[in-house]
Amino acid sequence: MTVSQSPIIPFTSDEAQATLRDACQVAGLTSAGARLIRLGENALYVLPAERVVVRIARSLDVLADARKEVAVSAWLNEASLPAARTTAHEQPFVVRDKPVTLWHFIESRGTPANLNDLAAVLRALHQMPVPTELALPEFDVLGRVSERISATDVLSDEERQFLLMRYQQLQAGYATLNFPLASCAVHGDAHSDNLIKAVDGTVVLIDFERFAFGPPETDLAVTAIEHTLGWGSRAEYDRFAELYGFDVMAWEGYPVLRDINELKMTTWLMQNVNENETIAQEFRNRLFCLQNPEAPRRWRPF
To answer: Any idea where the Aminoglycoside phosphotransferase domain is (predicted)?
Structure first.
């Protein structure tokens, strides 16, 4: 299912809203009462009347990732790992040059998933045999980072040069790592916000665009960096590592993964600095920290 393509324009909240309206028309859904859940790498809207979540990617450059998301969802559900499910529509489809996927809304019980839930889900995921027909890509730990740096208009020439040099340094550092755990299917953005605790208590995994085959340490490092930023207690992190069975922070390669995650988190936020001043200030705070490695990390979660 496709529609005619439009000229490329910035992925703002207004553009996401326009894409949502067109996508609903294509799919035969009503956008009445649509609510924006998140604007980040994608725009996510919930359609209350349809009990559907609309996921809009930024550009056709990530169409393959949208196709992968649909395939991964089917695999996980067939393998009995609770995961978000797509609707019966033919998808992904393209609207205004943006891949769109449609997902069944998951009713939350109101209690957020925690790090204990995340440890259990990751342990199960990392032990699952991957069918060859799924054809997961090799994990690109710095995927989309250089593209974000090159495409943005919010950096000075010196800032852009600094971030690109940092990207190259970390890419080289990552290539030298010797990972102690066996490669497996990895989520690629494995934090507890990508879990939903459903009404019946089931913990459901969501957001599959970064799914790949690679070192499980990369999934574990997401929780570790959030701990080092103060977004949780030491006791919570220690319990997470105990339940999973491996403490990535105790591994000698962790500092490289930590620095990679800091760069990714900064350039991810950079995409939305024109949305409001709060985001712009936090981006500048993060960039300052990258430029000054010894500076305290007082980062706000977004």
So the answer is: 50-253
Distances 284 to 154, 266, 273 between C-alpha atoms, Å = 10, 9, 9
Distance in angstroms (rounded) separating the CA atoms of residues 283 and 267: 8
CATH topology of domain 13-104: Phosphorylase Kinase; domain 1 (3.30.200)
Provide the token pair at 252. Answer: 């000698």
Neighbour count for residue 286 (Cβ, 10 Å): 22
How many Cβ atoms are within 10 Å of 218's Cβ, its own excluded? 26
pTM (predicted TM-score): 0.92
Per-residue pLDDT tens digits for 73-106? 999 999 999 999 999 999 999 999 999 999 999 9
**Residues 107, 108, 112: CA angle, nearest 5 degrees:** 160
Amino acid, res. 216: P
Distance between CA 52 and CA 79 in Å, rounded? 23
Tell me how many degrees the CA angle 217-218-221 measures, rounded to the nearest 5.
80
Alpha-carbon gap, residue 236 to 66, rounded angstroms:
33
